[in-house]
């Protein structure tokens, strides 16, 4: 923080607000705020369960089997990436640690608590990851928590009865945080927000309401989140939500996603002998090689090599954590050229996975024509181009490429009273940059590849269904 203030060349005393975004990971603490283990190692330093942890698949399936109405607000299926399956896993598998837990937080809420000493939970984190129904009072459904074996969770986690709205002031920095951060005590802190939702704010908060049906925010790095806002609730099977006012005031949110996108491209490079041999910025090297191949071979490059990108399950729109990846069209070629083809086919599959999510949204009332892109993928000329061509939607790049950071700043500025509301702050602080329209020649090629991707989903499900039961 001190380095950021120094680089900005400003007086720290001028900073009016500080907001926190974080991945939706779960933090567990003891009665004095000390870390308590969430690990089978018993190490108390390991007290955070990261968002991508899939240890609780069985618990997620059990929760889905209840058929409780809260599932209507998570796409009909509980994901192991959400908080409750993980907490149920901890209760079952680490009972001694469970008895020591006296606080549980979503990571962004932990940061706000750590900064202010005030225990407030966010309508963003609780609604999107803990099944709090922000459009109802009471928002917590105690019958549901009791049904799944977590009737003691609210007391153990010390969750307040009501979650705080996004950008509502929680309090000011306490003395310890102000000293550690080098910021003034008067600095106002709002509730924490999930990183992808901060990105959605940083991309869409400045859009007119009439445009929201046409525009989706996409936050793409290690994984990808697709944030779609609407004036009323629109349940979409396999897509999380609808969540009331969990990102933009007065709007409902649906959240699609792909659990492994940038991470999958990393995996492909680590997997292939030529990828492991690359030094420096491997992805830039691959993007250059792909560009050269496309300039020579055109849209048909790597035709016949198809990838199903579900290496870490399918978050949306199939809501199937047990799905697995497939590569069709492999040969014995292990040259660098074969790596270029595989990398490109994987990148295409990732873009087509986004098309699959957008088509699911459109089937339920959206008319998506523009994808507002931020995150690591926004810096990749290859991925920017693929998202436009493969989805047949225009890709809008913001002037400030780090829209997650910008969205968090918008929340901080609103909480500090520098703007009358989140939308007003967004209209001032967000500026659009370049728009990339689809290339028709490539779009036609990707139509055919998309049909094959959907066929691969069908075949993969059939193959899994043909497996004998475990132990058979």
Rounded mean pLDDT is 96
Q: Spans of 5+ residues with little confidence (pLDDT < 50)?
A: none
Q: Which shape, going by the Cα principal axes?
A: globular
SS element count, helices: 18
CATH topology of the largest domain: Nucleotidyltransferase, domain 5
Would you state the CATH class of the largest domain?
Alpha Beta
Classify the oligomer. single chain
Evaluate the radius of gyration.
23 Å
Count of distinct strands: 16
Strand order of the largest sheet: 10-11-9-8-14-15-16
Short descriptors:
472 residues; alpha+beta; Nucleotidyltransferase, domain 5; 2 domains; seven-stranded mixed sheet; three-stranded antiparallel sheet; 41% helix; globular
What does this structure look like?
The protein has 472 residues and is of the alpha+beta class. The protein folds into two domains: 177 residues, Nucleotidyltransferase, domain 5 (2-Layer Sandwich), CATH 3.30.420; 279 residues, Nucleotidyltransferase, domain 5, CATH 3.30.420.40. Helix content is 41%, strand content 14%. The strands form five sheets. It has a seven-stranded mixed β-sheet, with helices on both faces. A three-stranded antiparallel β-sheet has the order 3-2-4. A two-stranded parallel ribbon has the order 1-7. It starts with a helix and ends in a 7-residue tail after the last helix.
């Amino acid at each position: 923080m001190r380095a950021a203030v120094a680089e900005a060349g400003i007086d720290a005393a001028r900073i009016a607000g500080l907001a926190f975004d974080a991945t939706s990971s779960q933090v567990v603490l003891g009665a004095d705020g000390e870390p308590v283990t969430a690990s089978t190692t018993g190490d108390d330093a390991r007290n955070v369960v990261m968002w991508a942890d899939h240890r609780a698949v069985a618990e997620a399936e059990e929760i889905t089997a209840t058929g409780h109405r809260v599932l209507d607000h998570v796409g009909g299926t509980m994901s192991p990436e959400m908080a409750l399956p993980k907490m149920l896993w901890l209760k079952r598998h680490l009972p001694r640690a469970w008895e020591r837990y006296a606080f549980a937080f979503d990571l962004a809420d932990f940061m706000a608590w750590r900064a202010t000493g005030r225990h407030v939970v966010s309508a963003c984190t609780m609604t999107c990851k803990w099944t709090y129904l922000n459009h109802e009072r009471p928002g917590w459904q105690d019958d549901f928590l009791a049904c799944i074996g977590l009737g003691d969770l609210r007391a153990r986690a010390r969750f307040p009865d009501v979650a705080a709205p996004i950008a509502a002031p929680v309090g000011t920095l306490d003395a310890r945080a102000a000293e550690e951060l080098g910021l003034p005590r008067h600095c106002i802190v709002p509730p924490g927000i999930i990183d992808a939702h901060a990105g959605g704010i940083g991309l869409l908060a400045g859009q007119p309401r009439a445009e929201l049906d046409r525009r989706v925010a996409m936050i793409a790095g290690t994984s990808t989140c697709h944030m779609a806002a609407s004036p009323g609730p629109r349940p979409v099977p396999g897509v999380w939500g609808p969540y009331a006012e969990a990102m933009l005031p007065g709007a409902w949110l649906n959240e699609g996603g792909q659990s492994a996108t940038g991470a999958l491209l990393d995996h492909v490079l680590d997997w292939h002998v030529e990828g492991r041999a690359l030094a420096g910025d491997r992805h830039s090297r691959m993007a250059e090689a792909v560009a050269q191949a496309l300039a020579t071979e055109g849209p048909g490059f790597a035709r016949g090599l198809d990838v199903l990108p579900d290496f870490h399950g399918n978050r949306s729109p199939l809501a199937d954590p047990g799905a697995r990846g497939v590569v069709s069209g492999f040969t014995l070629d292990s040259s660098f050229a074969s790596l270029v083809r595989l990398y490109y086919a994987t990148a295409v599959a990732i873009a087509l996975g986004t098309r699959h999510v957008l088509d699911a949204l459109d089937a339920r009332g959206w008319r998506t024509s523009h994808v507002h892109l931020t995150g690591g993928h926004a810096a990749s000329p290859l991925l920017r181009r693929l998202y436009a061509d493969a989805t047949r939607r225009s890709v809008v790049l913001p002037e400030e490429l780090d829209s997650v950071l910008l969205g968090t700043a918008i929340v901080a500025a609103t909480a500090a009273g520098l703007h009358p509301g989140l939308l007003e702050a967004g209209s001032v602080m967000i500026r659009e940059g370049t728009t990339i329209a689809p290339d028709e020649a490539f779009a036609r090629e990707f139509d055919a590849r998309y049909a094959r991707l959907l066929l691969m989903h069908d075949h993969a499900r059939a193959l899994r269904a043909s497996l004998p039961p475990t132990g058979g």
